[in-house]
């Protein structure tokens, strides 16, 4: 069984007694920096000169300095720059300024799991990963709630690294919702698998294939869009609230019968065999190595895939229809 931790299990004064550097001010960075500050923690944000995020962080009342300076000042360093640049930021700004007894924190385990970053044995290495997008992490905190987090310790130099991680999680509201103890390996592998097989990759491919099947059979793209993409949100909301059972309670008996009989034909043994293959490539490091190679080559295939999907009829149809529904928020 998973070990769960709540507000009463975490001591906020631990993180309040440290100086924290948050490197990066994107989706997660802004949420961590602002909420830690509001929890009475001494925070500085580390951003390179010329970063567009600098003005935003300062406007929101935070002190901004360079990543190197932030690491020098702080004893807890949270790395929230994009995963593919973390190793470079580590080499250039973190490693030269890291001191014995410091704690290095991550919001995702990729660089530690695949050894792109190898911290010295004299520092704590921890993870606090909210299970939700950064903007929700911040909003929930402001509303007195929190997004559940998972926390892990890869290296416990101080002997009290997990208590420090829990304290940090409390500072961003995580222990209000619950923190689950994990490992860098479990978090990294399940996160990559989830986004590839189900949440992003699997869902995008399912929606596109369904849409294309209807349009190729001569149905109107607008009808296909509503059926295969728009309604998905309503179904997922029901699953989120009450699992498959609540979703099936709400849909018609006809839809439920089709769910049981046709779902396993679409996502079948072959699909599951492919999922196992994906998981194998995540576990043996080949996915991470290929992704880093693509990133370092300037993202040629990534940009090709992105462009192809932007021009897909599903997307152009959706853009037009969402424009007519004023309540559907296109804000990023
Ligand atoms: P992001 O892309 O939203 O923001 C990255 C920030 O880093 C920006 O402020 C950018 O200006 C800054 N940056 C870029 N290059 C830099 C450099 N060389 N030096 C200093 N700063 C630089 O990133 P994100 O989505 O918040 O992801 C940060 C981490 O959090 C990643 O490890 C990610 O896996 C993890 N994470 C993200 C989410 C999410 O909701 N997006 C959820 C869970 C975990
Ligand atoms: Mg320091
Ligand atoms: Mg490792
Ligand atoms: Mg994830
Ligand atoms: Mg991820
Ligand atoms: Mg329908």
TrEMBL record:
PANTHER family for the chain: KETOL-ACID REDUCTOISOMERASE, MITOCHONDRIAL (PTHR21371)
SUPFAM superfamilies named among the record's database cross-references: 6-phosphogluconate dehydrogenase C-terminal domain-like, NAD(P)-binding Rossmann-fold domains
Biochemical pathway: Amino-acid biosynthesis; L-isoleucine biosynthesis; L-isoleucine from 2-oxobutanoate: step 2/4; Amino-acid biosynthesis; L-valine biosynthesis; L-valine from pyruvate: step 2/4
Gene from which the chain derives: ilvC
Transmembrane parts of this sequence: none
Record-listed substrate binding positions: 252
Family the entry assigns: Belongs to the ketol-acid reductoisomerase family.
Note describing how the cofactor binds: Binds 2 magnesium ions per subunit.
Cross-referenced InterPro entries: 6-PGluconate_DH-like_C_sf (IPR008927), KARI (IPR013023), KARI_C (IPR000506), KARI_N (IPR013116), KARI_prok (IPR014359), NAD(P)-bd_dom_sf (IPR036291)
Catalytic activity: (2R)-2,3-dihydroxy-3-methylbutanoate + NADP(+) = (2S)-2-acetolactate + NADPH + H(+); (2R,3R)-2,3-dihydroxy-3-methylpentanoate + NADP(+) = (S)-2-ethyl-2-hydroxy-3-oxobutanoate + NADPH + H(+)
Span of domain KARI N-terminal Rossmann: 2-182
Positions bound to Mg(2+) 2: 191, 227, 231
Protein name as it appears in the record: Ketol-acid reductoisomerase (NADP(+))
Organism field: Streptomyces iconiensis
Enzyme Commission numbers on file: 1.1.1.86
Binding locations of Mg(2+) 1: 191, 195
Domain of life: Bacteria
Cofactor: Mg(2+)
Classification via Pfam families: KARI_C, KARI_N
């Amino acid at each position: 069984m998973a070990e769960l931790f709540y507000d009463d299990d975490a001591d906020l004064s631990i993180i309040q007694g440290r100086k924290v550097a948050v490197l990066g001010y994107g989706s997660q960075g802004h949420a961590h920096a602002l909420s830690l500050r509001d929890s009475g923690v001494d925070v500085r944000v580390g951003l390179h000169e010329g970063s567009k995020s600098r003005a935003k962080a300062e406007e929101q009342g935070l002190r901004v300095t360079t990543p190197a300076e932030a690491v020098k000042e702080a004893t807890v360093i949270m790395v929230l720059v994009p995963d593919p640049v973390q190793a470079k930021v580590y080499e250039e700004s973190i490693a030269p300024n890291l001191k014995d007894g410091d704690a290095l924190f991550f919001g995702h385990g990729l660089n530690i799991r695949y050894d792109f970053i190898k911290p010295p044995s004299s520092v704590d290495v921890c993870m606090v990963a909210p299970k939700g997008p950064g903007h929700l992490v911040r909003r929930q905190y402001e509303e007195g709630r929190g997004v559940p987090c998972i926390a892990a310790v890869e290296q416990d130099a101080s002997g009290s690294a997990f208590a420090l991680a829990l304290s940090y999680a409390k500072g961003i509201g995580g222990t209000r919702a619950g923190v689950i103890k994990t490992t860098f390996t479990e978090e990294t592998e399940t996160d990559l698998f989830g986004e590839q097989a189900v949440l992003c990759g699997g869902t995008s491919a399912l929606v596109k294939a369904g849409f294309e099947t209807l349009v190729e059979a001569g149905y109107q793209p607008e009808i296909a869009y509503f059926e295969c993409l728009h309604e998905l949100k309503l179904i997922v909301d029901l699953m989120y609230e009450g699992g498959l059972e609540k979703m099936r309670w709400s849909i018609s008996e006809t839809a439920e019968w089709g769910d049981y009989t046709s779902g396993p034909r679409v996502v079948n043994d072959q699909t599951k065999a492919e999922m196992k293959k994906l998981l194998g490539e995540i576990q043996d490091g080949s996915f991470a190595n290929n992704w880093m190679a693509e990133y370092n080559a300037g993202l040629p295939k990534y940009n090709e895939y992105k462009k192809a999907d932007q021009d897909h009829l599903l997307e152009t149809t959706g853009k037009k229809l969402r424009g007519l529904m004023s309540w559907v928020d296109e804000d990023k």
